[in-house]
Amino acid sequence: MIHLEANFVQFKEDLLPKEDNKALLTFPFLHIYWTDCCDTEIYKATVKEDIIRWQNLLKTYNTVDWLIVVVESDAKKKNKTNILPRTSIVDKIRNDFCNKQSDRCVVLSDPLKDSSRSQESWSAFLTKLRTLLLMSFTKNLGKFEDDMRTLREKRTEPGWSFCEYFMVQEELAFVFEMLQQFEDALVQYDELDALFTQYVVNFGAGDERSMIMFIVL
Description:
- The chain is mainly alpha-helical.
- It has helices spanning 40-60, 74-78, 88-97, 116-153, 162-178, 182-204, 208-216; strands spanning 31-35, 66-72, 105-109.
- It has two domains: 13-137; 155-205.
- The model is unreliable at 211-217 (pLDDT under 50).
């Protein structure tokens, strides 16, 4: 069984992944936009533009893993007059932003109430959150492993640093340990040990490329 912990943090542009970022655990895997708007005029005037800015910023950093959560409250809607049916805001968001991904907008109904409707919405939200989070994590983990293999294949090139590579593969080991996949984590250290041992042997045999590697260290 894979165990994956997740934390919610406030959205900041500084947290979005950069092109030269080799780390895996330093940026969010899933971005969530929360709104409790139940007024179509307010949606048109502020919320819609805010979502547009948010999504455009994500696109700038090639981030496609997102979810919009609409929090509905009966108490709040009772204070409104001439309100449209409860699905109107959700439908507008789905039409404006989720034409091809309608599942990227979910409703959380009266989250503080102990009712069957609230529990059902919580269950649907958590299921969707888990699915999207695992999809994003799996995709980013695969990309990280591909980048690591590319870096490893460059080990015979001048200026290649074993220290830099060690930190990359060690982070992969940390990830497997976090997932409680301890055997996979140990494999990473075994591979690092084998690679370093080979460099030591080559260095002892007078391999200039290994000498360059040790100078970089």
